[in-house]
């Protein structure tokens, strides 16, 4: 696959040196005649701190630029690097003579590439200076193996992930990258400039891919969509290694457009923020990590509209299209759903989290900037969303108590925190106790005096408050599956989750102490879970995708029994207080309602399409339902005169 984004040349040159390629453009037409000069550009970085162990090069987490390095062609000074380590030169060579390019700086070994001709015009060099000399030929036969890199190409076994790792829920810790010293103007590697195989921390790898493939000045939601695509694409090739080997050392990807452009010297605060904001999110199709391909555009135009070409280029994200979508107000989840049909997001409870109070006139969500936000009714009308305090972690839900005077979520440091109302105003968020693991749900009782979540060890735990303040967390019993939801009844004495064996489990209070037991039924991967106010109905999604219900009769759990409908793989679930109305997203993306009539469950859609990863919430009566639509807007369906109205937007855009 050729990925045409911010080209390799743009990535390594930077806008200050070669502004003509500082943004994704269609590939230039091939020249019909030989250039009369050699024009090259690149970056020079300090790699003296690299280590070679077990036959593999390990680079520092970050590489500093080498300023004022000399760039020579056949001994003639043609330029120096700037403060960011960047250079560019155009050396006259009408006769097409092969020349030697030399890079040198005080305290470093000399770097040389011999045999360079005008055919290499437009190539970009990524020069990593060490303490020893490095010399190679442009044609591909090493004149002298770089002494401090030789071990990197002699190992008979791989270090890192080369076919031995596979997971659809937990990203790899490292990815092995085949690095080249030069790339042509399309971003493809130049044979013979192989540097070696380098294990790179996986998050660091994505951080150094994104600014080379997306324009850092683009809208945050475009960058976040790009971060998810770059991460998922690389993860796929760790799970499904092609078996690339360089002199006995295997690698997952190389650093060129044959996979994705990776340059360890290129970073940007905006793209780093996009990677961090989405890191705890997993994107799958049909439960599996997939090859999340992307291209510069899908219609041969960088001015294409959001979604243009998506129907004919399945499973391919448009870089320019992602920016058009973001400019039109799409969230990053909605952008990805536009180009990758059927995609699901997990690792959160959920990304498009929504929560509604018992009366149905307050809705909490997390906006596109990560702010915990509230839509509310005043004088019979929904008001513009208002921040209530605090920033939520990228995978954090937010949950209201029954009166909407307490809102609980997970902050950026993993702390479970509380926003609360005092004297009619929201107070600053404060920690209540404990750290939540990645993707942990958060639930509260009606009074907002008990909060349950999953800690970093997978234990189901409980914070609680009394007149002296918040206490805990303390285990209430059991280990939750990595993708488990949580559901708590109004009194806070029945807590439901999915255990590590996939069983629907119930922690409950008896004689003042928490007990643990399984209820009945197996929940499919990613199943949400919900309960009613009394805690005697619990619903989940079974292994076949059917909505299932366990219920208490004569003091004993019955079921599970299918109650109607097939759920989309990422659906949330919302049950009203009496347990006779259940809301979910069906397999077609429609917001659907299972309800009891004449003692039997019925099924119907109520209006509106929910985006991938949308939360869903209802009030105590079950006659208001909120969700996130395909544009990321908060929507409300409601009952009037016995019929569903809407949906209509009520204000604000969810992340």
Task: Please characterize this protein's 3D structure.
The protein is built from 6 helices and 50 strands. It is elongated. The chain is mostly beta strands and 655 residues long. The strands form 14 sheets. It has a 5-stranded mixed β-sheet, with no helix packed on it. Strands 21, 22, 23, 24 and 25 form a 5-stranded antiparallel β-sheet that branches. The longest helix is centred in the middle third of the chain and has 20 residues. It comes from Kitasatospora viridis.
Continuous helix count = 6
How many extended strands?
Answer: 50
Strand order of the largest sheet: 5-4-7-8-10
Beta-strand content bin: 35-45%
The dominant shape is: elongated
Mean pLDDT: 82
* Overall radius of gyration: 28 Å
- Domain module tally: 2
What's the N-to-C terminus distance? 30 Å
Structural class: mainly beta
Helix content: under 10%
Largest sheet: 5 strands, mixed
Low-pLDDT sequence parts: 1-32, 138-160
Topology readout:
Blueprint: H1 8-13, E1 37-46, E2 51-53, E3 56-58, E4 70-73, E5 76-80, E6 86-92, E7 99-104, E8 111-116, E9 124-129, E10 134-137, E11 174-180, E12 182-183, E13 194-201, H2 202-213, H3 220-239, E14 244-246, E15 249-251, E16 253-254, H4 269-278, E17 282-285, E18 293-295, E19 316-318, H5 319-327, H6 332-339, E20 343-346, E21 354-356, E22 362-366, E23 371-378, E24 381-382, E25 386-391, E26 398-400, E27 406-410, E28 415-422, E29 425-426, E30 430-435, E31 442-444, E32 450-454, E33 459-466, E34 469-479, E35 486-488, E36 494-498, E37 503-510, E38 513-522, E39 529-531, E40 537-541, E41 546-553, E42 556-566, E43 574-575, E44 581-585, E45 590-597, E46 600-609, E47 616-618, E48 624-628, E49 633-640, E50 643-653
Parallel strand pairs: 1-9, 8-10, 11-16, 18-19
Antiparallel strand pairs: 1-6, 2-3, 4-5, 4-7, 7-8, 9-12, 11-13, 14-15, 17-20, 21-22, 22-23, 23-24, 23-25, 26-27, 27-28, 28-29, 28-30, 31-32, 32-33, 33-34, 35-36, 36-37, 37-38, 39-40, 40-41, 41-42, 43-44, 44-45, 45-46, 47-48, 48-49, 49-50
